[in-house]
Amino acid sequence: MQLPTAVDVLIIGAGPVGLITAVGLQQQGVETLVVEKRERDEQATYGRACTLYPRSLELLEQVDLATDLIQEGFAGRSSVNYANGKRINERGWNMMFQHFKASFHDYALNVRQKYSEDIFRNALMSHGKQVGHGWKLSGFSIDTSLGDGYNVSAVLEHATLGESHIRCKYIVGADGSASTVRNLADIPQDVDSTVFQWIRIDGKMTTDMPGAELGFAAVETTTHGNVLWVKLNKDAYRVGYALSPALLAKYPNGLTKEVAVAEAIEGMKPFKLSVERVDWWTDYKIRQSVATQLQKNEFILLAGDAAHTHSSGFAQGMNTGIHDATNLIWKLSGSIKGWYQPSVLASYHEERHAAATRLINIDRNAAAAISGEVPPEYAGRDKSPHELLKLIFVENIGFNIGLGVSYAKSVLNQAPAETTLPSGWRAPDALLHEPGTRFPLRFYDALLRDHARGRWNIVVFAGNPAMTSGNYRIAADSLSKLVDRRPAMFHALTIIKGDTGGAWAALGGPAWGKFYLDLEGKTHSEYGVEQSLGAIVVIRPDHILAYAASLDSAGDIATYFNSFIM
Which part of the chain is the Phenol hydroxylase-like C-terminal dimerisation domain (predicted)? Predict the structure, then answer.
């Protein structure tokens, strides 16, 4: 593969995070190059994330990757939990499904990483891009003196093709826990090595455990920790368990595949387990770490496992990486286009480092409980590790499933003057209706129409037009002046409560942006907007609520954007 001599963004690492980031940037007109030090066949043997939570699927919709994944995966909507062969419904993973209902994706999608990577890679190829396999980053330097924006010079090496020099505007390190980018950039990590060691096995299996086809199961044991069971895509399942001190002592020279399978069979008892085919298995030690910086020298960025590592206990690896990628894509794209002041890209570190730090704190306790030990933080509560696992999961459930991931107040997330929702949190999805046909339409789908990826949504909730039309027209005129400054940066929508034959009939003039109906007023209620007053809501490109103002304070919207746009 012939490498270019210059590119906007050089992405090191062709795992899910690197591929998603590349696809998202290409969609927004930013040229990328993805390189991976391993050859493709070798890379396929590494890493096997398998479960995607509702928020991750919503975020993948923003880069047009969710549909193909859903076609490939298994949608699990329930779970069972067993102790001594009996159902214990008050524990296990089942409690998370009630919390899924805040999303139209009210399920967890199970699809093995090999297949998700194929989907992401094909999406990248649709933009005319291929992954450069076998290329290793050996060094880079930063020089801003030329003034052409290509401030980073990178050196790549290939075993047979030699050396290649590439100039780029940014480097994104998505190259895993042993990140070359992180090491070359001299970014330290806060590391917590543990004594916990786990087994995961994927393959074709059968069991007489009731509920094995639901999607998820847990078997509480005193010998193998909290045993995991997952129904995967195609004909495969996953079984996982912890290597207790007794098991580690039993196998001082390590486990073979055959021994790992035999212990999985033991761990599933009293249920029977038959393993017909092993597609992949791993024996790994839990290590928790967070890079101290996710942005270094302005032009070097880290994402995914290069930025943070943790156990797979709550299935956070790929989910957290998706949050990283979709947080970074729009900030990086807009910065390259000259839309934003440096504070916007700097907020990537601020937001995602805080999220990763919280994740690690949760994972320390979860990994211990899954391994059959009482976490030190929970000592003295007179509860078993299995009971504590439920407590840890429930205490953090919104964050764990992604729907409750939030970001602190900042230049991007400013206190709303209207609505009842806080800034920095996920903007709720809801049902709208098309004018004319009255076909139902998801609010998120409306946000993504008109090539809106990477653009800010300014949503005018016009309420009851009979009561708001005067302020609406003034607001629309004011907002138009803002949008005219950078038309490619904004996406405009108007939503009224009720039905009408057309925008003119309801508003006494044209709608500002695309026009939709909130027939029963539920979307207005979801956003805490009074139908007699209306409101203007600003939603970030990653569908985080950023700010809101009243219809008669449209100038505040311009003030908000003036704090960070060029």
Answer: 519-565
